[in-house]
Amino acid sequence: MLTKGFKQCLAEANAAIETVSVEEARRLHAAGDVLFVDVREGTEHVQGHIPGSVSAPRGFLEFIADPESPMHKPALSSGRRLILYCASGGRSALAAKTLRDMGIAQVCHMAGGFGGWVQSGGPAER
């Protein structure tokens, strides 16, 4: 029997991590002070993403974040503040909690996800 559903998992993640609005994320993107990390699947990323973002699908996130892994992407251990995003905000909240649990302190997620980003007029590329 399921003892914890996705709603409880999301609530716990959101209580433990920082969330930034789309507007704040756009300001930070324009300033170039942060690294955006797309935790959607690779097929979603190629259909459109935030310019300059790094693709790190949630299913491989721990491997991509860990410098000891052959899948590691050095951008995730650069020391820059990471802003994670997905399609609407659920996966990125869970992913931000995972990275925080792994010891990455400078991590947050963007409420509204890529959908909110595009709807607000944020730049996107393929």
What does this molecule look like?
There is one protein chain. The chain has 126 residues and is α/β, with parallel strands linked by helices. It has one domain: Rhodanese-like domain (Oxidized Rhodanese, domain 1), CATH 3.40.250. The chain has six helices and five strands, in the order H-E-H-E-H-E-H-E-H-E-H. It has a five-stranded parallel sheet with strand order 1-5-4-2-3. Helix 1 (6-16) packs across helix 5. It is globular, with a radius of gyration of 14 Å.
Q: Globular, elongated, flat, extended or rod-shaped: what is the shape? A: globular
Strand order of the largest sheet: 1-5-4-2-3
Strand content: 15-25%
- Determine the mean pLDDT: 96
Q: Please write the CATH class name.
A: Alpha Beta
Q: Report the structural category.
A: alpha/beta
- Low-confidence parts, pLDDT < 50 over ≥5 residues? none
Q: How many domains make up the coordinates? A: 1
Q: What is the rounded distance between the termini? A: 42 Å
Compute the number of strand runs. 5
CATH architecture: 3-Layer(aba) Sandwich
Topology as H/E string?
Answer: HEHEHEHEHEH
Helix content: 40-55%
The CATH homologous superfamily is named: Rhodanese-like domain
Tally of contiguous helical segments: 6
Report Rg.
14 Å
CATH topology: Oxidized Rhodanese, domain 1
The major beta sheet can be summarized as: 5 strands, parallel
